[in-house]
Amino acid sequence: MNKLILVFLVLFTSQLSFAESCEGRIRVTPEIYPVCDDAYELMKNTNTRASEKNKLSLFIFGRSSCPWCQSLNQMLVTTGRQEFLENCEVLENLEVQEIPSGYYYVKGDEWAWSHHNGGDIIKELHKKNGSELTGVPVFSMNNPDNTNQFSIINTASKVDPSQYLEKNTKDKDGHDPVKVCAALTKAFSELKKQSNEK
Q: Is residue 7 part of a domain?
């Protein structure tokens, strides 16, 4: 009985600490998607850098515990970035920023998000775009000088599994670099066309 109470207390207090404000939080370990980073601030700063470099902004929404989010981090940001660049030139024209989405869960037929404002941004973008909300990871590519010009790229689809950008194996969950490159290249071309028309 005492063990059961102890387990309950640990779970309960961990839920409380997660729901608390991030103010003053000290990061014990580096996170790919730090939950205490302000998503709006990250996007604003990325758009400024992208504009200065004449690039488009590419935001990757995810969470550190998600294996598919880790896969995109390795492919586009860290260990696999150079190899991806060699096979996908469009990445050179993108200012990449990972955005913490917070944790999500299913509430009825709706996706519900934790307190983190990255989740709020995902919902806002999907609503503006009229696209389905599939969870994370998800890309948002936008014109930094006109944030109304953007594209949502879901890495998975509840409606059409053929649209998946994933390439999972029995040993590892991950993404197909060819499909990811094709999706980024298509979105880039469409956004460049939009910005030239304005």
A: no
Structural domain includes residue 15: no
SS3 call for 80: coil
Return left, alpha or beta for 152; rule: phi > 0 is left, psi -120 to 50 is alpha, else beta: beta
Find the domain containing 174 and state its range.
38-197
Q: How far apart are CA 84 and CA 75, in angstroms?
A: 7
The CATH number linked to 68 is 3.40.30.10
Structural domain count of the chain? 1
**Does the residue 54 lie in any domain?**
yes
Would you give per-residue pLDDT tens digits along the chain (198 residues)?
555 444 433 333 333 333 334 555 444 446 787 776 778 888 899 999 999 999 999 999 888 878 888 889 999 988 899 999 999 999 999 999 888 876 544 445 554 444 457 778 888 888 888 877 777 888 999 999 988 889 988 887 666 666 788 887 888 778 889 999 999 999 999 999 887 776
pTM over cut 0.85: no
Distance between CA atoms of residues 193 and 185, nearest Å:
12
The helix (H) or strand (E) run that includes residue 54 is none
Is residue 18 in a domain? no
Q: Are strands 94-100 and 146-154 parallel, antiparallel or unpaired?
A: unpaired
Q: Is 59 helix (H, G, I), strand (E, B) or coil?
A: strand
